Amino acid sequence: MPFLLIDFPSFNPIAVAIGPFAIRWYALAYIGGIVIGWLYARSLLKNERLWGGPAPMSLVQVDDFILWVTLGIILGGRTGYVLFYNLPFFIDHPTAIFRLWEGGMSFHGGFLGCVVAVMWFAYRNGISILSLGDITTAVAPIGLLLGRIANFINGELWGRATDASLPWAMIFPNDPSHLPRHPSQLYEAGMEGILLFTVLAIMIRLGALKRPGMILGAFILIYGLTRIAGEHFREPDVQLGFLWGGLTMGMLLSIPMLIVGGILIVWAVRRGAPRPAEAIR
């Protein structure tokens, strides 16, 4: 083994085990992302300066929204994985759709599930869809960061093979080829989590929440860019491989995000900040 090659850390995917019951790091990542995101969302809503007046929703409403967005993430994420990544298998094994503990969640499906949750909750509560979308996507990178770290702990969704001279190349124990690979989960954690959160946080401090749809559009656009960049280092799902022109499914699903995100940003800039009467409504 080349002397620069890093041994994959020996992680136990189970964080806590009590008798026959086990809690995995992946489940804790989802729980932690939702709880920390909820606390961050509450702190943003309390700061009227960021909104140019009273926030467009109450703390009680955002507390109620947590259940909606959680269901959107889980149902959308699983549905997206079934449809986008492994439909033939699930057609032959329909009961496997409900075995969530075996893994298989799609970000793009989870995002669409969140979109449905945002639109439905906003309509039922008389809240601006764009403002609720802003607050939801402002906190989303927290969950993405924890989720990618959980992928790394599980030794799954590893990167493409690389030269063993790369100082941080790793051999993942679940990889049957035992090739040195990019730890692409950590690349994605840095881009989709830390970088995206930092950019959105700076935009918020500069007043982006005063323009409904600005943070939502920036999240969609920047995530699409970072996901496409990360896919250049990530091994495609074995059941799909490379698609048209060497693209991966993750790349193809992210391309529409670039368009939608750009449209939302332009719309938010042209629409401008709402007048005080509009902000209170």
Automatic annotation (TrEMBL):
<keyword id="KW-0812">Transmembrane</keyword>
<feature type="transmembrane region" description="Helical">
    <location>
        <begin position="135"/>
        <end position="153"/>
    </location>
</feature>
<feature type="transmembrane region" description="Helical">
    <location>
        <begin position="186"/>
        <end position="206"/>
    </location>
</feature>
<keyword id="KW-0808">Transferase</keyword>
<dbReference type="Pfam" id="PF01790">
    <property type="entry name" value="LGT"/>
</dbReference>
<dbReference type="InterPro" id="IPR001640">
    <property type="entry name" value="Lgt"/>
</dbReference>
<feature type="transmembrane region" description="Helical">
    <location>
        <begin position="242"/>
        <end position="269"/>
    </location>
</feature>
<keyword id="KW-0472">Membrane</keyword>
<feature type="transmembrane region" description="Helical">
    <location>
        <begin position="25"/>
        <end position="45"/>
    </location>
</feature>
<keyword id="KW-0449">Lipoprotein</keyword>
<dbReference type="GO" id="GO:0042158">
    <property type="term" value="P:lipoprotein biosynthetic process"/>
</dbReference>
<keyword id="KW-1133">Transmembrane helix</keyword>
<keyword id="KW-1003">Cell membrane</keyword>
<comment type="function">
    <text>Catalyzes the transfer of the diacylglyceryl group from phosphatidylglycerol to the sulfhydryl group of the N-terminal cysteine of a prolipoprotein, the first step in the formation of mature lipoproteins.</text>
</comment>
<feature type="binding site">
    <location>
        <position position="148"/>
    </location>
    <ligand>
        <name>a 1,2-diacyl-sn-glycero-3-phospho-(1'-sn-glycerol)</name>
    </ligand>
</feature>
<feature type="transmembrane region" description="Helical">
    <location>
        <begin position="213"/>
        <end position="230"/>
    </location>
</feature>
<dbReference type="GO" id="GO:0005886">
    <property type="term" value="C:plasma membrane"/>
</dbReference>
<feature type="transmembrane region" description="Helical">
    <location>
        <begin position="105"/>
        <end position="123"/>
    </location>
</feature>
<feature type="transmembrane region" description="Helical">
    <location>
        <begin position="65"/>
        <end position="85"/>
    </location>
</feature>
<comment type="similarity">
    <text>Belongs to the Lgt family.</text>
</comment>
<dbReference type="GO" id="GO:0008961">
    <property type="term" value="F:phosphatidylglycerol-prolipoprotein diacylglyceryl transferase activity"/>
</dbReference>
<protein>
    <recommendedName>
        <fullName>Phosphatidylglycerol--prolipoprotein diacylglyceryl transferase</fullName>
        <ecNumber>2.5.1.145</ecNumber>
    </recommendedName>
</protein>
<comment type="pathway">
    <text>Protein modification; lipoprotein biosynthesis (diacylglyceryl transfer).</text>
</comment>
